[in-house]
Amino acid sequence: MRKETHSVFADYTQSLSTAEGEALSAFFADYSQHNFLHKTEKALMRKDFENALLCYASLGVTLEDALKRLAISNLGSFYARPSLRWFPLDNAAKIYPFSMTHGRMAVYRLSVYLTGNVLPDILQIALSFTIKRFPSFATTVKKGFFWHYLDTSKRRYSLEPELSVPCKPLKVARSGSQSFRVLYYKNRVSIEFFHILADGSGGMVFLKTLMAEYLRLLGIESGEEAGTLDINETPSPRELADAFPMVQQTEKISGFVNRPAVQMSGKLCRQSPCRVLHFKMDAGTLRAAAKRYGATVTSYLLALIFIAGRQATDEQSGTMRVQVPVNMRKFYPSKTLRNFSMYCGIQLPIQEIEDVESVAGEITKQLAEKASRSAMSEMVTAAARIVSSLRFIPLFIKTPAVKLVSGFLSDRLFSTTLSNLGVVHMPPELASHVESMDMVMGPSATNRAACSLVTFGNVAMLSITKSTVDPSFEEALYGLLTADAVMMTVEGTALYED
User: For the whole model, what pTM was predicted?
Assistant: First the structure.
């Protein structure tokens, strides 16, 4: 029968020299002075350190080196001070809590694939050290009188093995619950975020910083660059700020549409998503294919998505519309780690969707107009006016109407989504330990597929979240890419039970 971890740790401590035993006792005495969580949580975190020390011992790391890497100073004062801070939601985030009761939730996933399997005992410590650097993430969702808000939650933030469907709803209604989850599977580390916390840019900074700390704990040091943060640096107010007020208000408002878009065919699965697919493409051949059409990678992929979408629907008339998130930081430089993105809708009459040559130019033109600074500013202004008009309506009155809109209308306005996070960089010392990255969009109530792209090194990962078993869309997309000589492999999950 296998010994309990605590017994194994007791055996380990008995094997230490007197000097090592004294160093270990001093280490845990220091821990007690830095952690005033509830006794259960405090005991669990202490066991985390014990597990990490056992892991180091199994790797041949000396106790002296292990204690340096695990220095309690990395906890800072986060676990020693009471929870006092709270954060109002930005205008982009205020709609998300209203969709929580529809069995779906605005959740997205960012993943990194390492060159070796994850050591969960070390990753857990990395999370405990990293979370203090992101105070707006160390929060729980609460109801105010007029709006939901984020309240600081001082707790042991835990990771879990990945055992179920990606992007399932988080149980945020429970007091003190996490608004994100950290998962591991073989060589993959994933973070699933409730969109109320951050957009993809802010989430990526958290993932990269967590990975930098994990690799540091494995003895791989790196400089502070390429979007990773120093976990022991005091968070900047600019990182925690709502950046939307810096957008210049406009006289004209636009950006929202009110006509339903053509949807792909195929029966919606009861289990959503029912499958996730990854087109692991050679970034060089992808860029070359786009260049042949005089298009950017985003415009090119949008053209393929429109063509594949038409092949995946039985509709013969109407408009196909693809939602494209737009990072406002490129127009208004900001360090915020919270939401600072809007979206535009690229649309084509279904009868006009024929081949890449015939649609790429129109898509490029629409992107230039609809994803421009002026168009996005008009949309931000429109959103601000809507929020302002609801400002003094109590939450229990505004909730039913907002739920109706967010749960049963918004996703019908689009046929699918393409979110392109662009090229992700990491410090070179860390990049050599990373194979690739991806983003998985949470499923919507109506759309049969959602697409996202992340490029790291020479790997461009196009991920497709499926809500139907009908394979028409991805098969058409694969055929179009291979016809344009884009080198790739296709990976993905098995079909989840329906």
Answer: 0.95
